[in-house]
Records
---
Amino acid sequence: AMLLLDERADVHVLLTNCLKNDLNSSTQFIVGTALCTLAAIASPEMAHDLAHEIERLIASSNTFLRKKAILCAFRMVRRVPELMDEYMPKCAAFLNDKNHGILVSTITLVTEMCEQSPVVLNYFKSSIPTLVRMLKTLIVSGYSPEHVVNGVSDPFLQVKILRLLRILGHGDPDQSEIMNDVLAQVATNTETNKNAGNAILYETVLTIMNVESENSLRVLAV
């Protein structure tokens, strides 16, 4: 269905019940496909109607489904921003999750919500120490060998964290101070002879220049 339709097609109204049935299936792959379809074609009305199902799946113990539900929620809040309130507490908890897919998808959703709402932005400022700790771990010991790219520890997760820190620290000297040390570590320890390292360094420089960082750190960025 998601290959043939978009949210403007009238027939999508008829799909709501079908998707609801699939979202309650006992087969995870059917549920996963339904989540992908919903993310691709959902109208604001469909997003409202199926919000409870997404919220339920975000709390699932099945990490495969939880990751897909979080990414589906990312598309939902773009269409219906008022749904953000339902996801904020769960996302704050998921930032402590050990599953790589859950972390990447959660940070993606949190970044989107923070860009849309000052209220959400203030809510997630309390998560800055968690993000800083996560980034330090990636620099010092790495996340997992399977996520190393050309000798660089998990560049995708590092970039996601840096982008979120940039949003959370903008215009806030107190919160920016918390991330000064780790930004300096990333800037000085990242290998620049690899594309993955350059991507991280680029995001680090943007973050340093967009938060209320120390003057010495800004000089380092330049």
---
Amino acid sequence: MWGRQELVAEVLSPSTTRYDQGDKLLRYARSGVVEMWMLDPEDRQVKIYRFDRQPPLDPERILRGDDVLRIERLPGFELSLARLFRAP
């Protein structure tokens, strides 16, 4: 990564879930990433991490079902989880 990353979105894969939720999460936190979305297509949920807030390695929010993703730095941006995880 170059420069400070404001937002990272990570899509979990069954083969790398343990790494993504462990070492990779810790690396993002230490590298200066402000916010991370961990998208889990299998469980149809999104965990929101804010590394600038305490405790940094616990999700600030877990979104499911009809919840809507919003980005503080992009007022007006909204993405429903129903739409995000909708089958093609």
---
Amino acid sequence: MDTGTRLNDAELALAREALPDWSVDAQELRRNYEFATFLDAVAFVQCVAQAAEEADHHPDIDIRYTMVTLALTTHDAGGVTEKDTALASTCEELFALPAFSGDGEDPLGDEGEDGEGLSDEAPDEEAPSVPALTFKRPIIG
């Protein structure tokens, strides 16, 4: 299937089955993700941003404290395409990582033994990495 072609009704039905936590209609895919902390939510958004850059397909992202809402549509096609379902699937894979599912360590690795400061321990080789942010210009000042 051409990734820039809108999904037909049968393809949208398959997307609903494959993405049960997403709201699926002809115009967009939408999903809310709830996190334990604001920092967890932001770390997830960093991972989504990296995946979106790699796919050259960018979601609308809304962060409200511990709630992240993603909306996916292909503007050039005027609705949902395979690009959207592929990125939605990637977001589901990211959310299932131990760092975000509550089964693993703090996704930013900043909670020490006493709950404060940075951890002195070396990162686990098996643990998923969270991309670092780099800015081209100062944010403040």
---
Amino acid sequence: VDSEMYTGSYPISVKVSGVRAGEAKEATEAIYIPLIGKEKGKEEEKDESTPLLIVDSFDFGSGNFKKNAEFTLKLTFLNTGTRDIHNAVINVLDLSGLVVPTGTSVIKIDSLKAGEKVDKAITMKAVNDANMSQTSLSVDMNYYDPDNKQVSGSYPIIVTLQKEKEEEEKKHSGVTNPILMVTDYGIGGDKYVMAGKDFPLSLTITNTSAKTLRNIKVTVQDSAGAILPSQGSSSFFINSIGPGVSYGKLMPMTVNNDIAAGNCTIAVNMSYEDLDGGTYSSADTITVPVTQEDRLVIDDILDPGWLMAGEQGYMQIKYYNMGKTTLNNLRISVSGDFTVDGDSSQYVGNMANGRSDYFSFNFYPNQEGEMHGKAVFTYENAQGDEQSIEKEFTFNIQPAPVWEDPGEMPIEPEKPGLGSLPIWGKALIAAAAVVAGIFGIKAARKHKKAKAEALELDE
């Protein structure tokens, strides 16, 4: 096997030739081999070591139900995992209350090896046949792996309830060509299946004729190759189905990860014989709605930086459509411990896959401390279901500065002058001035006398 191959189911053609009643016969059959290889865009890794118990097939007889009429529901359980299971407890319930068990509704399986099957049966009855054509039974299973880890699973099966009047009409309808047809199918109880994921396909095949049909081969095939068996063959064999009897089969299927969202058509081809050796064939088509996982990615919201209470801030939120479908009617809104300057919401409209954008706004924090907020992205997916994603954020807001009031400036006291001296102080100053004046007069006279004597000597 090429090491570069991706995980999935790959078809292998098997050609069988031989001679029957002197006539050469040849048939070609496609079987699918599950391969574990490189992951192709799957985020979740499947644990192949986990045992998986499924309802491989079921049979509930002729389907001619009257009020309080009993019937036997036969179930075949298959361990599709690679490990054994033990202590399996299985509960079969009809939530509508139309079909109830006559005894216990619990089936127990002590142990079941990997790849093995086991047949079980439970007796039930229809409590009310008014306007009743079918009902869904839930087969809830709980069991343990070799490590005593509990594993749970649930499978729906459809029981077609055919009234006695309808049975009589069918017997006298004059239909000569025996026909097998798909009277019901299910995809695990969901509205649609997710691309890249596994799902259980349940089929109910009914013999609508008055003859017993045998050697029945049923092939399930998607011509586009988008939906394939996740394990085993795309065909299964039924020994015989009596007139008016329905047969149920559950097939584990997987969906290609690259398929576009929409409805996939699957052909159910049936070939069979009657008791006289006549060969017949019939075909039905079923529709499986497929969707791609929508994936809106929102970046972490960056801190607006140093911001004080009452101060304007700016915030930007980047987002990306990283899925494979368009996000319809996308709307964005923000709220929290702040006041938005302008609109707090924006209508984006339809956002194609691979596109990115951003939403920005100005705001004023309401108070200091932690500012909490959230951005809410709301959109409709490919099925029209409304989805919502919230992105929360928390930032610290600094307190606004407090300025102290200096008040009035103090007035300095006036320095004391002469007018404030006492009388004795003033007297001392006056006396000093008189003495200084006397000495000044004497000095002037002495200087004048010396100058005169000098002039006389010159003469």
